[in-house]
Each structure stands twice: as structure tokens, then as C-alpha cells.
Amino acid sequence: MQALDHTANIYLAVSLSPSSLYLQNPSTLSSTHPSITHVGQVGQMADVQLFSIPRDEWDRAQIDILETLNSQQGISRVDVQTAKQRAKRGGDEL
């Protein structure tokens, strides 16, 4: 998977139902809205796919994008991903 740029893009984790037709070819979900780009599978979970939307487009069309995705048959959940700073553990915390 490519490096994620949370400055330029918003990322959505889309969970697919077991009967979803998108499980065969999840990138076809990108055709439901012109701003959506398929990034790839989340880890080993074939039923969770990551999509990106340019941040400026998200600011303009967030409601439309979410409604479009949520209205697709076979999508069980759409989660907006937020970038979080990881904390480094010190040697004495273990």
C-alpha cells in the first residue's frame, strides 16, 4: 500500500458485508463518485477497504460522498479515518 498523505487527503475505511458484490473487485466502488480513489485493503481484512478523497473535495462534498457510499448495496459501514500521532514507549514502561 502507498504512503498515506493525511494533509492532502481524507481516508475512508469501507466495511463490506459478506454478500457484497464489491468483495470480488473493491476498486469498482470508486466509480460511485468521481472523487473517490481506491487505496487498497486494510491489513489482512478483505472486507475492509481504504479509499481516499482529496481534502478540498471532501470539504465541498462530504455529505454527498457519505450518502453515496452508504446507499450502495453490500456496504455495511463507512468510517472516516483520522491521523493520530504515535507515542513512543520508553524502556521502563515494559
UniProtKB/TrEMBL annotation:
Annotated protein name in UniProt: Uncharacterized protein
Domain of life of the organism encoding this protein: Eukaryota
